[in-house]
Design a protein that fits this description.
This protein is of the alpha+beta class. Helices cover 34% and strands 23% of the residues. It has one domain. It contains seven helices and seven strands; from the N terminus they run E-H-H-H-E-E-E-H-H-E-E-E-H-H. The radius of gyration is 16 Å and the shape is globular.
């Protein structure tokens, strides 16, 4: 990708009412560690190269290396049902030389958890990981979106700190 960090402003009306809203716990929020374990498994061992976690609506959108032109959507209870991962054959994407390794995936998902759960007003709505191109996508409650390579993400974590409202707003502006 030609950029290290692309920030896209969303709907101004969402930003105008930012402090009049708060996060409502979703099904994925209540099972966030389990959801992240499933996402990690899809990316590490089940052939997915790109997964988007829609926390608010409790769905996963996945792209698999053996069928890259089609995305698949899995919703709520389906993702959390016993045996969900059994429908996917074991398949690595090592032949694609992914830029995000296992340890980085775990660290990214840990940060997604923090960004989703730390603040009730400004929080992560969607997070995506593309192992092949090393990109992370994030959409926040203020309707600001970020597309950032994983190395820059780790270098700039303080930009996404949720303890300082001024920093939060700059992340959404």
């Amino acid at each position: 990708m030609p950029y290290k960090w692309l920030q896209v402003k969303g709907d101004p009306s969402v930003r105008d009412f930012l402090f009049q809203q708060s996060r409502v716990e979703s099904l994925f929020d209540g099972e966030i560690d389990r959801v992240h374990a499933i996402v990690h498994e899809l990316l590490a061992r089940k052939g997915a190269f790109h997964v988007k976690i829609h926390y608010s609506s409790s769905q996963l959108t996945c792209w698999f290396a053996d069928d890259a032109y089609r995305y698949r959507v899995y919703v709520k209870e389906e993702v959390l049902s016993p045996g969900f991962l059994d429908q996917f054959r074991d398949c690595t994407i090592d032949h694609l030389q992914p830029l995000i390794d296992d340890m980085d995936m775990s660290a990214i998902l840990k940060e997604f958890r923090r960004l989703r759960t730390t603040d009730e007003t400004i929080y992560l709505r969607n997070g995506s990981v593309n192992r092949v191109n090393g990109q992370i996508g994030m959409t926040f409650s203020c309707d600001g979106s970020h597309y950032i390579d994983h190395k820059t993400f780790f270098e700039k974590l303080d930009t996404f700190a949720t303890s300082d409202v001024k920093e939060q707003l700059s992340a959404c502006a």
